[in-house]
From TrEMBL:
Species the sequence originates in: Phytohabitans rumicis
Signal peptide: none
UniProt entry keywords in alphabetical sequence: Arsenical resistance
A Pfam family it matches: Phosphatase-like_N
Matching InterPro entries: Phosphatase-like_N, Ptyr_pPase, Ptyr_pPase_sf
Name the UniProt record assigns to this protein: Putative arsenate reductase ArsC
Biological processes per GO annotation: response to arsenic-containing substance
Keyword set includes Plastid: no
C-alpha cells in the first residue's frame, strides 16, 4: 500500500498517517515471512471491512492493524511459515459481540500463553455487548477492549478447533477440522443477571475444552 493508496475519500490526514505507521509495524513484525505488498494488502482489506460499519473512524487504523496481524499470523500458520505447536481455537457466533467474546476472554485468561484463541462473527455487530462485558468483569476478566469482527478463510483454516455458537449454515466448514456446536442462549438485550448463567456455562465448557487439549488452566 503506497502513500497514495491512503488518499481516498473520507480518510483524514491523521488516519493516513496512522495506517502508514501500522503498515511499518507489521512489516517489521513479519519481516522475512511476508513482503510489503502482502502485508499492505491485508491491512488495506482489513481497514475496508471495518470502515463499512464502524462508528469510531479514528479507531479504524488500530482495528485494521490488529485484524491484519491476526490474519497474517493465521496465514503463516496455514502455509507452514511460522508455527509454534500451540493449539489454536476459533470461537464463532453471529455478531461476535457476546458469546464468542466471553469464550475468547475465558480461554485467553485460563490458557495464558499455552494456546491461541480467536473469535469472529457471521454478521459482526457494532460493539461488544455491555452486559457481557459487565458479567465478565465480575470474574476479573476485561473484554471491553475487544471488538466485533468477521472471520476470514485463513483464520478458519489455521484453527485446530472451531467452536460455533448459533451461526448455523453461515458457519464456514473445512474438511478434516474439529468442529463443536455449543448451544447457548444469545445474550443480546439481556441483563447482567440473565447473562451470568450463560457466562458460567461458557466457563465450564472452556475448562473442559482446555482439559481435552491438554492445556492446564492457569486459574
Amino acid at each position: 500500500m503506497t502513500e497514495t493508496t491512503y488518499h481516498r475519500d473520507g480518510l483524514s490526514v491523521d488516519q493516513q498517517l496512522a495506517l502508514r505507521t501500522a503498515a511499518a509495524r507489521l512489516r517489521e513484525e513479519f519481516d522475512g515471512v511476508y513482503g510489503t505488498e502482502t502485508i499492505e494488502r491485508f491491512l488495506h482489506s482489513s481497514y475496508d471491512q471495518f470502515a463499512t460499519f464502524s462508528t469510531v473512524p479514528n479507531f479504524l487504523p488500530l482495528l485494521a492493524e490488529r485484524f491484519a496481524r491476526q490474519r497474517l499470523t493465521a496465514l503463516a500458520r496455514v502455509e507452514g511459515l511460522r508455527t509454534d505447536g500451540r493449539p489454536v481455537v476459533l470461537f464463532l457466533c453471529v455478531h461476535n459481540a457476546g458469546r464468542s467474546q466471553m469464550a475468547l476472554g475465558f480461554f485467553t485468561h485460563l490458557a495464558g500463553d499455552a494456546a491461541i484463541a480467536w473469535s469472529g462473527g457471521s454478521e459482526p455487530g457494532i460493539e461488544i455487548n455491555t452486559a457481557a462485558v459487565a458479567a465478565m468483569a465480575e470474574r476479573g476478566i476485561d473484554i471491553s477492549g475487544e471488538y466485533p469482527k468477521p472471520w476470514t478463510d485463513e483464520v478458519v483454516r489455521a484453527a485446530d478447533v472451531v467452536i460455533t455458537m448459533g451461526c448455523g449454515d453461515a458457519c464456514p466448514i473445512f474438511p478434516s477440522k474439529r468442529y463443536e456446536d455449543w448451544v447457548l442462549d444469545d445474550p443480546a438485550e439481556l441483563t447482567v443477571e440473565q447473562v451470568r448463567p450463560i457466562r458460567d456455562e461458557i466457563e465450564r465448557r472452556i475448562r473442559q475444552l482446555l482439559d481435552e487439549l491438554s492445556v492446564p488452566a492457569q486459574h
